[in-house]
C-alpha cells in the first residue's frame, strides 16, 4: 500500500482532540506531509494547520485526503460520505483507518470509479497471519502499555525511537494501529486482525533481529479496559517484550468510553508481568510515561518525582521533558 503525500487531514465534526488523534498524530510526526485540515461545522479539534476546502487543497498540490478522525467502533458517519465523495471527484485519493472499507459504501465506490482515484483502507491487511507461537526469537523488544486507551503509547515509542537513533542505537518503531501505519509507512492495525491471529500478527510485525536491535512496539488499549483488553493481551503475548513502559494520563477518573475506574500504575505493572511472562519470563517494567498536558509544569514535575520514588523507576512526560532517562534504563538489558 503506497499512500501518496502531501495530505489534507479530514477531521469531520469530532467532539474533542482525542477523537482526532489519528490526524493530529500524523501532523505531529510528519508535518512536512500535511498541507491543511478539513473540518465540518461543530468540529472541536484543531491540528494546528491551515483550514482548506477541497478545491484549495487540490490547488496546493494535495494528493490524498486522510480521514484523521476516529470513533468507538471505527464507523463512518453518513454525513462524512459527501466530503469524501467530493474529494474523490476532485481527483484526490482517500485513505482511512476506519473499520469499514470505503468501497463498501456505494456512493464512495462510484466516485472512485468515476475519477480513477485510489481508496486506501489502512486497517485492512492482505497479509495472512499465523497463530502466535510464543517461541523465543532474537533481538530486543519494548512494548508500551497503558492504564487506559489514548494515553500516549504511540507518542512514547516514537519519542524513544528518535532518542535512541540519535544516540546511535539500532531501534525501529513498530506500528500496531492505523495512525502508526500512516506515520511509519508499515505495520498492521492489530485491532482489525481476527482474535486468533493477533499474537501471530505481532510476531510478524516484530520478527527475529540482531541481538542488539530494539523493536519499539506501539501498545493498544489496556489490559484493564472492558472494551479493548482482548487486543491488549494478544499484543502483549506476541510482543514477547523484554521491557515495557507504563503510560498514564493522571487527570482521568474513569477509562475512556466506559464508567470503570482507572487501574493504578502498580496494578498495570503487576498484571503486565503476570501475563507477559507467559511468552517472556524475563519481562520487566523499565519506566513510566505520563501525559501531563493538562497539568502546570510545577505540578507535572512534582507528580513525576512522586511516581519515580513510589515505583523506583524513571518517570517522565516524553513530549514535554524528553525520554533520556527511559533510554538510559534500557542500556542494562
UniProtKB/TrEMBL annotation:
Residues 129-327 form the D-glutamate N-acetyltransferase-like C-terminal domain. InterPro entries: DgcN-like (IPR011669), DgcN-like_C (IPR035086), DgcN-like_N (IPR035402). It holds the Pfam family DUF1611_N. Residues 40-123 form the D-glutamate N-acetyltransferase-like N-terminal domain. This is DUF1611 domain-containing protein. The lineage of its organism: Bacteria, Pseudomonadati, Pseudomonadota, Alphaproteobacteria, Hyphomicrobiales.
Amino acid at each position: 500500500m503506497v499512500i501518496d503525500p502531501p495530505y489534507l487531514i479530514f477531521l469531520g465534526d469530532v467532539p474533542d482532540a482525542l477523537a482526532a488523534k489519528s490526524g493530529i498524530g500524523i501532523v505531529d510526526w510528519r508535518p512536512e506531509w500535511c498541507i491543511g485540515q478539513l473540518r465540518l461545522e461543530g468540529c472541536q479539534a484543531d491540528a494546528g494547520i491551515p483550514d482548506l476546502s477541497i478545491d484549495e487543497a487540490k490547488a496546493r498540490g494535495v494528493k490524498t485526503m486522510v480521514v484523521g478522525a476516529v470513533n468507538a467502533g471505527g464507523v463512518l458517519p453518513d454525513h462524512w460520505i459527501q466530503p469524501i465523495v467530493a474529494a474523490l471527484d476532485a481527483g484526490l485519493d482517500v485513505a482511512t483507518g476506519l473499520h469499514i472499507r470505503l468501497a463498501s459504501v456505494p456512493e464512495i465506490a462510484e466516485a472512485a470509479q468515476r475519477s480513477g482515484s485510489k481508496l486506501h483502507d489502512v486497517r485492512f491487511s492482505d497479509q495472512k497471519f499465523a497463530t502466535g507461537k510464543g517461541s523465543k526469537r532474537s533481538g530486543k523488544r519494548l512494548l508500551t502499555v497503558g492504564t487506559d486507551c489514548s494515553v500516549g503509547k504511540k507518542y512514547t515509542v516514537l519519542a524513544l525511537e528518535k532518542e535512541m537513533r540519535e544516540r546511535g542505537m539500532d531501534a525501529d518503531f513498530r506500528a500496531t494501529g492505523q495512525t502508526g501505519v500512516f506515520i511509519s509507512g508499515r505495520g498492521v492495525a492489530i485491532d482489525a486482525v481476527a482474535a486468533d491471529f493477533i499474537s501471530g500478527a505481532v510476531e510478524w510485525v516484530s520478527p527475529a533481529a540482531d541481538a542488539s536491535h530494539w523493536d519499539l512496539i506501539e501498545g493498544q488499549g489496556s489490559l484493564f479496559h472492558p472494551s479493548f483488553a482482548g487486543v491488549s493481551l494478544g499484543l502483549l503475548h506476541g510482543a514477547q517484550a523484554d521491557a515495557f513502559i507504563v503510560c498514564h494520563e493522571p487527570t482521568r477518573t474513569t477509562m475512556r468510553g466506559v464508567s470503570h475506574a482507572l487501574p493504578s500504575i502498580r496494578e498495570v505493572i503487576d498484571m503486565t508481568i503476570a501475563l507477559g511472562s507467559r511468552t517472556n519470563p524475563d519481562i520487566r517494567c523499565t519506566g513510566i510515561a505520563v501525559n501531563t498536558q493538562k497539568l502546570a509544569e510545577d505540578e507535572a514535575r512534582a507528580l513525576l518525582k512522586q511516581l519515580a520514588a513510589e515505583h523506583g523507576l524513571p518517570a517522565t512526560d516524553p513530549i514535554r521533558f524528553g525520554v533520556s532517562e527511559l533510554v538510559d534504563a534500557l542500556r542494562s538489558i
